[in-house]
Sequence to fold (146 residues):
Amino acid sequence: MYKIRLLERLSALEEPLLVAGRPVDRQLRDSIVVHLRKLLNTRAGSVPIDPNYGMPDMSNIAGSFAMGTTESLSESIIRQVARYEKRLLQPKITVEEETREVITLRFELSGQVASAQDGDDVLQPFAMIVRVNSSGQVFVDPKVDR
Fold:
């Protein structure tokens, strides 16, 4: 199975510097993050080939911290990730406290990725921070342990 998406592989043929010097595992993780940014910022129904691809309208969701809203959003994220990002195995999501911005919802999305070591795929943990601001825009960044 290829680690990066088809269009990323084609882009790398035209611009080899996009992947030059980056370990394959890093390319995989970066590719997952980029795809999740696109997936979670696409509104459901806006992609003609698959009306289920993308998230429901979240333009007012982050301003209301009602528990049902947070749970519904968590379920939507997990459903989209499980269906459209197969490289992230066993995805799970936890709600985190956002300390910097009051009107932002923050989640940790974690799972495992198959990492190539000595020719074998080894499952390794991978976590990202997902933030949804008051306008419904989603930000996805790899989690950095400190």
Q: What stands out?
A: Residues 112 and 125 are 4 Å apart (CA to CA). Residues 23-142 form a domain with the Nuclear Transport Factor 2; Chain: A, fold (CATH 3.10.450.40).
